[in-house]
């Protein structure tokens, strides 16, 4: 894989319920892990020690839940200070968030769509720049699933690319969200994928979703990844090269063997797109000739 990525290989989201099951995991089964910092900041005692054992063993990235980057509310500088300390304490390789908002004079407990307008793109990019200056590093923003597009003046892809370009931030490529949105909003997922700036991709997410109806998919992270999403991930590797990719599973967590089978499938897809090692037949022949 390209060395500019913060991590490499196939990753898994670490949940508290997985602390014990993953304790004796084979080192080759998972290449990196991800947590939501809000769920681990300030955690002490037994759980804190268990978490520290994981961050000392695996490369980690963070995927935030509460930054609310597109909100009209002021940025939460206290939270950002905690995140900055958390990144330093656990040697976190990358911090990402959702290109959405989750607060409006209080927490909404959901990820709401930012209006696809030029004004909102500039406003959001400015807030991203403030966060990056405060943390002293570029952050990655995830393309999110959405179910309504209020005040839409731009296509989703144009809005996303405008925010990324103006803020000079990175992209957390969520492949499942592209699939979900392509069904719900009737666009070509491959065309959307190809229009993304590959040089900005930090890593990728893959996950399952729920079929509410034939034309309504809901991003849940509560089921197995389906074949069309695997195919879209495969196309991402073909188009951009092999990307570090993390499996998200937030609830309905299956037996560990099933979970790791999906991580292994990521690794299999990645290996299929890596260059084959050069043949050593010529070296062997040359060695024989020198004898």
Low-confidence stretches: 280-291
Structural class: alpha/beta
Looking across the biggest beta sheet, what order are the strands in?
A: 1-2-3-4-7-8-9-12
Q: Could you name the CATH class?
A: Alpha Beta
Helix content: 25-40%
| Cα gyration radius (Å) | 20 Å
Sum up the overall morphology in one term.
globular
Oligomerization category of the chains in this entry: single chain
What's the CATH superfamily, by name? Divalent-metal-dependent TIM barrel enzymes
| N-to-C CA distance | 37 Å
Total helical elements:
9
What fraction of residues sit in β-strands? 15-25%
Mean pLDDT: 89
Structural features:
291 residues; alpha/beta; TIM Barrel; two-stranded antiparallel sheet; 9 helices; 12 strands; 18% strand; disordered C terminus
Give the helices and strands, then pairings:
Layout: E1 10-13, E2 32-35, H1 45-57, E3 60-63, H2 77-89, E4 95-98, E5 101-103, E6 107-112, H3 118-135, E7 140-142, H4 156-167, E8 170-174, H5 175-184, H6 189-194, E9 201-206, E10 209-213, E11 216-219, H7 227-240, E12 245-247, H8 256-273, H9 281-290
Parallel strand pairs: 1-2, 1-12, 2-3, 3-4, 4-7, 7-8, 8-9, 9-12
Antiparallel strand pairs: 5-6, 10-11
What would you say this structure looks like, in words?
By secondary structure, the chain is of the alpha/beta class. The chain has helices at residues 45-57, 77-89, 118-135, 156-167, 175-184, 189-194, 227-240, 256-273, 281-290, and strands spanning 10-13, 32-35, 60-63, 95-98, 101-103, 107-112, 140-142, 170-174, 201-206, 209-213, 216-219, 245-247. The strands form 3 sheets. It has an 8-stranded parallel beta barrel with strand order 1-2-3-4-7-8-9-12. The protein has a two-stranded antiparallel sheet with strand order 5-6.
């Amino acid at each position: 894989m390209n060395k500019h990525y913060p991590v490499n290989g196939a990753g898994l989201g670490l949940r508290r319920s997985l602390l014990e099951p993953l304790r004796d995991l084979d080192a080759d089964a998972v290449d990196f892990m991800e947590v939501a910092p809000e769920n681990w900041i300030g955690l002490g005692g037994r759980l804190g020690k268990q978490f520290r054992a994981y961050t000392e063993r695996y490369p980690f990235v963070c995927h935030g839940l509460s930054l609310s980057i597109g909100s009209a509310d002021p940025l939460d500088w206290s939270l950002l200070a905690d995140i900055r300390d958390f990144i330093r304490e656990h040697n976190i390789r990358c911090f990402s968030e959702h290109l959405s908002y989750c607060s409006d004079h209080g927490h909404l407990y959901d990820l709401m769509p930012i209006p696809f307008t030029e004004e909102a793109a500039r406003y959001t990019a400015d807030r991203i720049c403030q966060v990056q200056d405060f943390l002293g590093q570029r952050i990655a923003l995830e393309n999110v699933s959405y179910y309504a597009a209020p005040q839409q003046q731009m296509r989703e892809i144009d809005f996303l690319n405008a925010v990324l370009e103006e803020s000079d931030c990175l992209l957390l490529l969520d492949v499942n969200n592209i699939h979900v949105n392509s069904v719900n909003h009737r666009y070509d997922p491959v065309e959307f994928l190809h229009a993304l700036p590959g040089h900005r991709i930090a890593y990728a997410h893959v996950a399952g979703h729920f079929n509410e109806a034939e034309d309504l998919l809901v991003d849940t992270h509560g089921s197995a990844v389906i074949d069309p999403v695997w195919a879209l991930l495969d196309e991402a590797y073909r188009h951009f090269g092999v990307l570090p990719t993390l499996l998200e599973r937030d609830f309905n967590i299956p037996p560990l063997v099933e979970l790791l089978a999906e991580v292994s499938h990521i690794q299999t897809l990645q290996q299929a797109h890596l260059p084959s090692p050069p043949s050593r037949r010529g070296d062997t022949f040359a060695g024989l000739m020198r004898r």
